[in-house]
Design a protein that fits this description.
Elements lengths: L1 H22 L29 E2 L6 E2 L7 E5 H6 L16 E6 L2 E9 L17 E5 L2 E3 L12 E8 L13 E7 L7 E9 L3 E13 L2 E12 L16 E15 L2 E14 L5 E4 L4 E2 L22 E17 L2 E18 L8 E2 L8 E25 L2 E26 L7 E3 L11 E18 L8 E20 L6 E2 L2 E2 L2 E19 L4 E12 L2 E2 L8 E2 L2 E14 L4 E13 L2 E6 L2 E4 L2 E4 L4 E6 L3 E16 L2 E13 L3 E2 L14 E2 L9 E13 L2 E12 L28 E14 L6 E9 L7 E7 L3 E6 L4 E9 L1
Parallel strand pairs: 6-9
Antiparallel strand pairs: 1-2, 3-8, 4-5, 6-7, 8-9, 10-11, 10-47, 11-12, 12-13, 13-14, 14-17, 15-46, 16-19, 17-18, 18-20, 20-21, 21-22, 21-23, 23-24, 24-27, 25-26, 27-28, 28-31, 29-30, 31-32, 32-37, 33-36, 34-35, 37-38, 38-41, 39-40, 41-42, 42-43, 43-44, 44-47, 45-46
Length: 796
């Protein structure tokens, strides 16, 4: 007993000393990752909390012994929340993760972790997001395509950033690591069908076929549909915030020997969605048309009818995973992938911001700006990994090649016109959309190569309780592109002559150091320092198409992971602090110049991207708790506090008719980052004879966030005065599921589950995106109304 006591005491002293070093570190104040999984759906034997196996360090291991901040949603958790795609994670299921549509478009998603990822517009060919999304080890290079339906998910890991060493470029905020269920080689079928309000329906089929000649085959099919949440009054036009998703995935797993496997998969997805509806929340200085009514609560009918059609995304891909074990302590992996997508974007949901002018006379005034864009991308990636052990050393090493080609264009024109002075009647303009001018068009090719290594050494001290990890990654990015249509004209636009070229490259080294101390079997403390970056690029909404540099983060984090009450309770807490440099900041405005003595402005909103000067910072605290107080009852709670500071940056746009640049630094707001976020879950089971009653309830809170990075004043004489960026509302969303599960049908292994579900159960409403124009007024997007339905699942 004394020996054991002394050993634990020594470990505690080691952990205390380690934490003391952390506390006095001159680089950062104490703050670290939002740790621990948010998930395990079901308790294991004796209602203990089950282990969660993750691959955050490229090898399977339990989340509690993985010394990084990590949250996990299992396939069962996603089903309980009725998650169809990543777009359904907007409710804040994981507090430090924020998922949101890009402006009004569900066809492209913004993904931020710990307040880092996208500050404004990542919906462009030569710009990247700061959170990497991976499916079965394959990086998805674009924001477009992330809204497609998910296929039979095994787990969704949220790895808090930076993750630059093992996952590479564009993971400064972290990474989302999605794993699908693999073929089993035995016959199984999982069939789901359901329907709900707003004309929604869903069907899934997941079929495992028996292994033939060592090849196991699995087929997944998904169909999901929802009618508009806001009605469009124009006959024949689509409504707002509707979707139609479908997809198929076929996977073949070949295991000719116990030491080798080849896993090939093909997937194809179709995702049609309509834009969100932007509501006028308050008047500006301009006079408003009679039809341009303020809608201060969530609308179910638009105030005017406009042409609108679905934005359609088509994605397909191939992946080949090879795994070979030449020795018991070495595994070699190869991950090869090719993916391609096309995405149309048709957005006419913002008519409310176009129905005002200074004169108040609206006869023949055109309004309702239809924004159209066509986006194409393909990518090829090849990664090699070596994962092994040498005595007390565990290591992973690898190399990556990534090649991407992207092109886009954009059009914008008015579709409606008032027919009277008061703006109380209108007509739809007869336009040939294909004949409208292309306002901008660009293409870019990206090549990225990298090599990485990470090793963990366990010295023969304190019963192997200390684990020291070091890692390093070298990356070289190159981007070559052209902005070949500039503001609707070429070769000369406001002094910009000819096609604008991008030819830039950057090299980067990202290190990582991590120390883990096992205080006991159930208590682990760690400290980690790591860096990450988001690639440089160019802004295709600009006139200049000037290259901007990568932005980067350097973060120190410390965490505690614990289990107690005989593994009936789990509590993990962490904190992080670090620097945020060269932040890519957008400024939007109108270029002005004097031509032949006449003041002329560009006829399209223009955006320039700058790297913010100086050094900003990020810090936060995150905690996760899970408890099984009674048999079959599991409670969970998560919390995240996030703070990001970005240095003030000078506006590059001219402030006077003479073209004088406004050099006054303006405050930069971190976007899509609630300062406080929390989530709670209740899962309860009641075993019955031949069935089980299962109930799930989750509540998700965030304190609101900014959707635009800069103040709404940019130009001219009006630039005097104090106008501040408006913030979105705080939110509390509750989701629930009630099921009579695993009903024994008396035929072999056949089981049936009947369930009802609801998202936003209490129909809470809030404005998550709020923006201000001094002239046209305050506007914003509301969250989705309550949706609910029922479904039947058959397994055999």
């Amino acid at each position: 007993m004394n020996i054991k006591h002394n050993t634990v005491t020594a470990r505690l002293l080691a952990a205390t000393a380690f934490c003391s070093i952390i506390a006095v570190s001159p680089a950062y104040a104490a703050t670290a990752p939002e740790t621990a999984p948010t998930v395990p759906a079901a308790a294991s034997e004796g209602d203990q909390l089950g282990d969660i196996v993750v691959t955050a360090e490229k090898r399977p291991q339990t989340a509690q012994r993985t010394p990084i901040s990590i949250s996990v949603l299992s396939g069962a958790d996603l089903a309980n929340r009725h998650v169809v795609s990543l777009a359904d994670l907007t409710d804040g299921s994981i507090p430090s993760l924020k998922v949101a549509p890009f402006y009004s478009r569900n066809s492209a998603l913004i993904v931020n972790i710990r307040g880092v990822g996208v500050l404004s517009d990542g919906n462009q060919p030569a710009r990247d997001q700061g959170v990497g999304v991976y499916v079965n080890g394959v990086y998805l290079g674009r924001a477009q395509g992330l809204g497609t339906a998910l296929f039979d998910i095994d787990s969704l890991e949220v790895l808090k950033g930076p993750q630059g060493t093992l996952f590479g470029r564009n993971t400064e905020g972290g990474a989302i690591n999605i794993t699908t269920k693999k073929p089993t080689g035995d016959f199984h079928a999982n069939l789901i069908a359901g329907a709900g309000n707003f004309g929604s329906y869903k069907a899934e089929g997941h079929i495992d076929l028996p292994s033939v000649a060592g090849i196991a085959l699995k087929i997944d099919g998904v169909v999901s549909h929802r009618d508009p949440l806001v009605k469009n009054t124009l006959t024949g036009a689509s409504g707002f915030n509707a979707y139609d998703k479908r997809g198929v995935r076929v996977e073949a797993l070949w295991n000719p020997t116990s030491d080798f496997s080849a896993d090939y998969a093909f997937d194809s997805s179709y995702d049609a969605s309509t834009s969100l509806y932007l509501q006028l929340l308050g008047l500006g200085t301009n006079k408003q048309a009679a039809l341009g009514t303020v809608q201060a609560t969530r609308a179910d009918v638009a105030n005017v009818g406009v042409p609108e059609q679905p934005s359609v995304g088509k994605v397909h891909g191939h992946e080949l995973n090879l795994e070979y074990r030449p020795a018991s302590n070495l595994t070699l992996k190869s991950i090869t992938s090719y993916r391609a997508l096309t995405q149309s974007q048709y957005d006419n949901g913002s008519a409310s911001t176009t129905m005002s002018n200074a004169s108040g006379v609206f006869t023949n005034v055109a309004f309702s700006r239809y924004s159209l864009a066509q986006f194409r991308q393909n990518q090829f990636s090849q990664e090699f990994q070596a994962i092994g052990e040498l005595g007390r050393l565990k290591y992973v090493a690898g190399a990556l090649y990534y090649r991407e080609n992207v092109q886009d264009n954009a059009q914008a024109f008015a579709t409606n016109q008032f027919t009277d002075a008061a703006g109380s009647a209108y007509t739809i303009l007869s336009l040939n959309y294909d004949a409208q001018r292309i306002d901008r068009a660009s293409h870019v090719s990206t090549t990225s190569v990298g090599a990485f290594g990470q090793a963990t050494y366990t010295p023969a001290l304190l019963d192997d309780a200390i684990h020291v990890t070091g890692g390093l990654r070298w990356t070289r990015d190159a981007k070559h592109g052209q902005l070949f249509t500039v503001n609707g004209a070429s070769p000369v636009v406001f002094g910009v002559t000819g096609t604008r070229y991008l030819d830039a490259h950057w090299s980067r080294v990202d290190p990582m150091v991590n120390v883990l101390v096992d205080v006991s079997r159930d208590i682990h403390v760690y400290g980690k320092w790591s860096t990450g970056y988001k690639s440089g690029g160019a802004n295709s909404r600009s006139l200049q198409y000037l290259a901007f540099n990568p932005e980067s983060v350097s973060v120190f984090e410390a965490g505690l992971k614990t289990e107690f009450f005989n593994r009936h309770a789990r509590f993990n807490v962490s904190a992080y602090a670090g620097t945020y440099k060269n932040v890519q900041v957008d400024f939007s405005g109108l270029y002005e110049t004097v031509i032949n003595g006449v003041l002329t402005r560009s006829n399209r909103t223009t955006t320039e991207t700058l790297n913010a000067p100086g050094t900003g910072g990020i810090h936060g605290v995150e905690a996760d708790f899970k408890l099984t107080p009674l048999p079959h009852l599991t409670l969970g709670a998560s919390y995240a506090y996030t703070y990001v500071r970005i240095p003030s940056t000078a506006n590059p746009f001219p402030a006077t008719a003479g073209g004088t640049v406004n050099n006054t630094p303006v405050e930069i707001y971190q976007t899509y980052t609630p300062e406080h976020g929390a989530s709670g879950t209740i899962d309860y089971e009641i075993p019955l004879e031949g069935a089980t009653v299962r109930a799930h309830l989750d509540g998700n809170y965030d304190s609101g966030f900014y959707a635009n990075a800069t103040d709404p004043l940019f130009l001219g004489a009006g630039n005097a005065g104090n106008v501040y960026q408006p913030k979105g509302d705080s939110a509390f969303i509750v989701n629930g599921t009630l099921a009579l599960a695993d009903i024994d049908m008396g035929r072999g292994d056949a089981r049936v589950t009947v369930s009802v579900w609801a998202r936003n159960l209490f129909n809470e409403q809030h404005v998550f995106y709020r923006a201000l124009s001094l002239t046209s007024g305050l506007n914003g997007f509301f969250n989705e109304a309550r949706t609910f339905g029922g479904q039947v699942q058959v397994k055999f």
